[in-house]
TrEMBL record:
<protein>
    <submittedName>
        <fullName>Uncharacterized protein</fullName>
    </submittedName>
</protein>
Length: 186
């Protein structure tokens, strides 16, 4: 993908979905810039490194979006009958564009995330924008060390969050600021 890939597409497009495709690499991080009105970006069953998918968000830094959905975005889903995601550790560098987007619904499910570093997955500069967060189907823990501290910090700041979904559960966990002390973590 280059900065010229979508240059002839209408700037009024608000929803882009990549489904079941292989993107060899995101060579230029600004290739989605022809879509300044984009509100929804979905990558579903896309054969691409998660790090490259997160770089796609560069043109939307400091903007508002309704939804960012990365579902089964991992090169491990590409080949063969046994589709297993490669292990991914999220770093602050990988998250630097997403952290600066005011997004209402963030879905990052079944992407092979096994761990995350400090100030990465749970650090967001516009937490008040979140209405729904979903991290299900990955293999990382958030209940130890700095991760628990970052989770609590995020929970305190997400004033509009209605659903936080983490694990393999079928439904989300209802969240209300009034109920924060009803379900203590300790």
């Amino acid at each position: 993908m280059t900065n010229n890939t979508f240059v002839d597409m209408p700037a009024t497009i608000e929803n882009i979905t990549f489904t079941g495709c292989t993107i060899l690499s995101v060579t230029e991080a600004n290739f989605l810039s022809p879509f300044p009105s984009l509100q929804i970006l979905q990558l579903i069953r896309v054969c691409l490194e998660l790090e490259s998918a997160l770089k796609m968000l560069y043109p939307f830094e400091n903007k508002k979006m309704n939804e960012i959905k990365f579902e089964e975005v991992n090169q491990g889903y590409c080949d063969g009958l046994v589709r297993t995601p490669f292990a991914v550790t999220i770093t602050a560098e990988m998250m630097k564009y997403l952290q600066n987007i005011c997004v209402q619904k963030l879905v990052m499910i079944r992407n092979g995330i096994v761990d995350f570093k400090p100030n990465s997955l749970l650090l967001h500069y516009h937490p008040e924008c979140f209405k729904e967060i979903e991290f299900s189907g990955n293999r990382f823990s958030i209940m130890n060390g700095f991760k628990l501290k970052e989770l609590i910090t995020l929970i305190v700041k997400v004033s509009n969050l209605s659903t936080f979904h983490f694990s393999g559960l079928l439904g989300g966990i209802p969240y209300s600021r009034n109920d924060l002390n009803q379900y203590p973590l300790f």
